[in-house]
Design brief:
With 384 residues, this protein is an alpha/beta fold. It has helices at 49-60, 66-91, 128-135, 144-149, 158-166, 205-215, 228-231, 237-244, 264-268, 277-299, 318-327, 346-359, 367-370, and strands at 10-17, 23-31, 38-46, 98-111, 121-125, 139-141, 173-178, 181-187, 196-202, 306-311, 331-334, 380-382. Strands 1, 2, 3, 4, 5, 6 and 12 form a seven-stranded mixed sheet that branches. The chain has a five-stranded mixed sheet with strand order 9-8-7-10-11, sandwiched between helices. It is globular.
Length: 384
């Protein structure tokens, strides 16, 4: 930590593992009685290949054995503990100074509409009791299902944090997260006007999968760095149109999605065969740019100048950013670092903040985002 903390400041750790399955992000967050949340330290714990493969299999399995689930959960929890311990060591903070860990867990499947008329569900693999035992810190987890129980989508949850972090009275802003899935948050200038946020579709999940299929050399980085592979190809307009025919893109908010819809087989079913791999990659980047741009234009049909605060791994893809700017020429793409928050650490920070909301018995969802019947206190508490 580079500067002293104000009196009555509480420390939280936020943990996030997203659709990329590349590791666990851990963020140390300071929350005071009045100031905006402050990011003190970060740590990225890489995902071992054996665990990544196990989680990937579970995410795509029609059936899973309980022993597989238990094994994956135990390994995942041990990795979370490693991430927390490494984070606190970097920050020179003892565990007893941390008020709580906010754990998102690893989403295995997200079906807020249910399947074939069945019950709605969202499943995050997690073991907060074991994590509390490993770390000696209270854990807050299972954030999503309370919103789902109230009729909401259970996602995205980060827009409430975006409001706390970036919201300014009298200033209209948009926040775009380009993780595995892309989501956008509109923060209106009028304080009484509700925040709007929703998933726009795939960001990196399809690009990463296609890159791994054709270009993975066994290196740690399993993604198209800077969009170089995509830039070497040409957009296949016919393929792009087939991809954009997916009903999700035409569904009004509230809406959320994940790997259970946008995965490699979904893409393969829409290929005609013989496409150049680089052309498919370019088309996938265009799919992300076009679907994000259309969602924003639908949200704010007046167009004109936009301040678009862009974070997540996709913000480092320079080719994707070029295509996004092409489709939104009036947008100024601003890094969250302009607000003192690095682009890669918003999601992890959000779950530290949500843990604080839970312990203060304050709502963590925004009904205008998720479609829930009202504001709800999210998460269960697992004492150390």
């Amino acid at each position: 930590m580079t500067s002293p903390l104000a009196p009555n400041t509480l420390l939280y750790v936020g943990l996030m593992s997203g659709t990329s399955l590349d590791g666990i992000d851990a963020a140390l967050v300071a929350i005071g009685p009045s100031a905006a949340p402050r990011l003190l330290e970060t740590h990225a714990e890489p995902m071992p290949e054996t665990l990544r493969q196990l989680l990937w299999t579970l995410c795509h399995a029609d059936q899973a054995r309980f022993a597989e689930l238990a094994s994956a959960e135990a390994q995942f929890c041990a990795l979370q503990a490693q991430a927390v311990q490494a984070l606190l060591a970097k920050a020179s903070i003892d565990a007893d100074r941390v008020r709580a860990i906010g754990s998102h867990g690893q989403t295995i499947e997200h079906a807020p509409q249910g399947h074939a008329g069945g019950a709605a569900y969202t499943l995050q693999l997690d073991n907060p009791s074991l994590l509390a035992e490993h770390c000696g810190i209270t854990v807050v987890a299972d954030f999503r299902r309370r919103d789902l129980a109230a009729g909401g989508q259970a996602a995205p949850l980060a827009p409430a944090f975006h409001q706390a972090l970036f919201g300014r009275t009298g200033v209209e802003q948009l926040v775009l997260n380009l993780g595995g899935i892309a989501n956008v948050t509109w923060l209106p200038a009028a304080p009484k006007q509700p925040v709007v946020g929703f998933d726009t579709g795939p960001a990196n999940v399809l690009m990463d999968a296609w890159f791994a299929r054709h270009c993975d050399t066994g290196a740690t980085e399993r993604f198209d760095k800077g969009g170089a592979f995509a830039k070497s190809g040409r957009v296949d307009t016919a393929l792009l149109n087939r991809l954009l025919d997916e009903p999700f893109f035409h569904q009004p908010p509230p809406r959320s999605t994940g790997r259970e819809l946008f995965h490699l087989d979904w893409l393969l079913e829409r290929l005609e065969g013989g496409e150049a791999p680089a052309d498919v990659q370019a088309t996938l980047a265009e799919l992300t740019a076009v679907s994000v741009a259309r969602a924003i234009i639908d949200l704010l049909p007046g167009g004109g100048a936009l301040d678009l605060i862009t974070g997540g791994g996709g913000a480092h893809n320079t080719y994707l950013m070029e295509r996004l700017h092409h489709h939104l020429p009036g947008a100024t793409l601003t890094s969250p670092e302009a607000y003192g928050w690095p682009a890669d650490w918003i999601e992890a920070g959000a779950f530290g903040w949500l843990a604080h909301r839970r312990l203060q018995e304050l709502p963590g969802n925004l009904p205008s985002v998720t479609g829930a019947r009202g504001s709800r206190v999210l998460g269960g508490v697992y004492a150390r």
